[in-house]
Design a protein that fits this description.
- With 263 residues, the protein is mainly β.
- Helices cover 3% and strands 25% of the residues.
- Strands 4, 5, 9, 10, 13, 15 and 16 form a seven-stranded mixed sheet that branches. A three-stranded mixed sheet has the order 2-17-14, with no helix packed on it.
- The longest helix has 8 residues.
Length: 263
């Protein structure tokens, strides 16, 4: 980490900003990239995920810009994309380009939570950002040389999906999947590992939960169901919650998730 992070709070969000050298994530812009074409995998389907005994949680994760949700700095590197040459280092990944500005034409938030042997790990900051600025005191990094269409600004678990050209798709549609996030990040995941962490992998997802719906940003753990297909093909919907659980020890329950109101 470039600077220390603050604990999970409901502090005010950092505003999008731009400079001559570093562009803001929320400004207008254009791209020559195209919407990723994600054909179904042709390899032999993976074995079904284990079926852990997990109940709905009573606690609620309240996301906020700059929050740290889970044990931080557990991945290698602690923040940003990995050294994998196919990860996001400025070149297109899965047809996703790294653009100096991000448009609001299509902007959704997805929550990606990860447990390793029953301990919640925080999603790294600045995944999908090339040469991000030093992390500000508020923990929400909003400046970089360029931004991939899937990226994280902080360790809250919120993955931003922002595309300047969504092909006319509304925000209630899914135009990317989990593999796009993992590929930009530079890690792989299947039934036996998530990145550097090995063990039986179970996946739970809330499915389609659109922003602006009657849930008012709260995704209840009662909505989670186990996903037994190829986790890479999970479509990303607005306000969807995805949990990747790496065993052999699984958490006893999964929490509710409250999205902050921006998107």
């Amino acid at each position: 980490m470039v600077a220390s992070k603050r604990a999970l709070t409901l502090g005010a969000a950092a505003l999008c900003c731009a400079s001559a050298l570093f562009a803001a994530a929320c400004g207008g812009g254009s791209s020559t990239g195209t919407i990723p074409n994600n054909p179904p995998p042709t390899a032999t389907p993976p074995a079904p995920s284990p079926t852990p005994s997990i109940s709905a949680g009573a606690d609620t994760i309240v996301t906020s810009q700059g929050a740290i949700i889970g044990l931080d700095d557990q991945f290698t590197p602690a923040d940003g994309d990995t050294a994998n040459p196919s990860a996001g280092h400025g070149q297109p990944v899965d047809g996703i380009t790294c653009d100096t500005t991000m448009s609001g034409n299509y902007h959704i938030h997805v929550y990606l939570g990860i447990y390793v042997n029953g301990t919640r790990y925080a999603m790294p900051d600045t995944v999908g950002m090339l040469n991000p600025v030093a992390e500000p005191a508020g923990g929400f990094t909003d400046g970089a040389q360029c931004f991939y269409w899937v990226h994280t600004h902080d360790a809250s678990g919120i993955v931003h999906v922002e595309t300047p050209n969504a092909g006319g798709a509304p925000v209630t549609a899914s135009i990317m999947n989990l593999k796009n996030v993992l590929d930009v990040w530079g890690i792989a995941a299947n039934t036996t590992h998530v990145g550097q962490f090995s063990g039986p992998v179970a996946v739970f997802t809330s499915g389609q939960v659109y922003r602006g719906s009657s849930n008012n940003g709260l995704v209840s753990s009662t909505m989670y169901t186990q996903y037994n297909g190829d986790l890479n093909t999970i479509p990303l919907f607005s306000h969807e919650v995805i949990w990747l659980l790496v065993g052999p020890t699984f958490p006893a329950s999964l929490p509710n998730v409250m999205f902050y109101p921006q998107f």
